[in-house]
Write a structure and sequence with these properties.
The structure holds 2 protein chains of 2 kinds. By secondary structure, chain A is mostly beta strands. Chain A contains no helices and 12 strands. In chain A, strands 2, 5, 6, 10, 11 and 12 form a 6-stranded mixed beta sheet that branches. Chain B is an all-beta fold. Chain B has strands at residues 5-7, 10-13, 19-24, 31-37, 43-50, 65-69, 75-79, 88-95, 105-106, 110-114. In chain B, strands 2, 4, 5, 8, 9 and 10 form a 6-stranded mixed beta sheet that branches. Chain B is globular and about 40 Å long. Classes of the chains: A mainly beta, B mainly beta.
């Protein structure tokens, strides 16, 4: 089946620190990969996505590269801000396997000033 | 409305009671999804509606769970004879017709606690 594993949180960083949140996956087909973010009190929002190997998704200073050889899609940001504090979810979707997303367990990021 | 809305935001119920959760998708969105998130875990897919097609119910965990949607409007998720393991946040998402299926817009969720 399909599954997503991401590092457990919480991840606590100081402002301007470098962020990496690891995500690895297993899939029965060829997946598209996503990062969603949930800010406090808000719904999940799509942060970025990549639909094929070696693609790099980017948004709001965040980046993630689709690595087929290591089945990974790690999220990175060079300099985090307090406003980045949220829960981040890695997810995948396999074409021709329905339209549902398979999510990881989420990683809470706390950025301190 | 501006986004997907869900009600109630919180629900506390006693084991064995039935509960009904509501989702109002973004106007014009043809697809609607229900997910469940247990504490400390990822989102689990429950059910998917696309227009007037038969829903994909492959994620419903038991026959105590059911969902309805009329056309492209409101959806209700019903859990009968609730059990403590049903305690979770239930999330609804919808997708606009011209967007890719991946761009799901999520509601804030209903937090269900079964005592």
């Amino acid at each position: 089946g399909n599954s997503v594993t991401q590092m457990e949180g919480p991840v606590t960083l100081s402002e301007e620190a470098f962020l990496t949140i690891n995500c690895t996956y297993t899939a029965t087909g060829y997946p598209s990969l996503f990062w969603y973010v949930q800010y406090p009190g808000e719904g999940l929002q799509l942060l970025l996505k990549a639909t094929k190997a070696d693609d790099k998704g980017s948004n709001k200073g965040f980046e993630a590269t689709y690595r087929k050889e290591t089945t990974s899609f790690h999220l990175e940001k060079g300099s985090v801000q307090v406003s980045d504090s949220a829960v981040y979810f890695c997810a995948l979707r396999v074409y021709n396997a329905g339209n549902m997303l398979t999510f990881g367990g989420g990683t809470r990021l706390m950025v301190k000033p | 409305g501006a986004g997907v809305s869900q009600s109630p935001s919180n629900k506390v119920t006693e084991k064995g009671k039935d509960v009904e959760l509501r989702c109002d998708p973004i106007s014009g969105h043809t697809a609607l999804y229900w997910y469940r998130q247990r504490l400390g875990q990822g989102l689990e897919f429950l059910i998917y509606f696309q227009g007037n097609s038969a829903p994909d119910k492959s994620g419903l965990p038991s026959d105590r769970f059911s969902a309805e949607r009329t056309g492209e409007s409101v959806s209700t998720l019903t859990i009968q004879r609730t059990q403590q393991e049903d305690s979770a946040v239930y999330l609804c998402a919808s997708t606009k017709p011209s967007g890719s299926p991946e761009t799901q817009y999520f509601g804030p969720g209903t937090r269900l606690l079964v005592l």
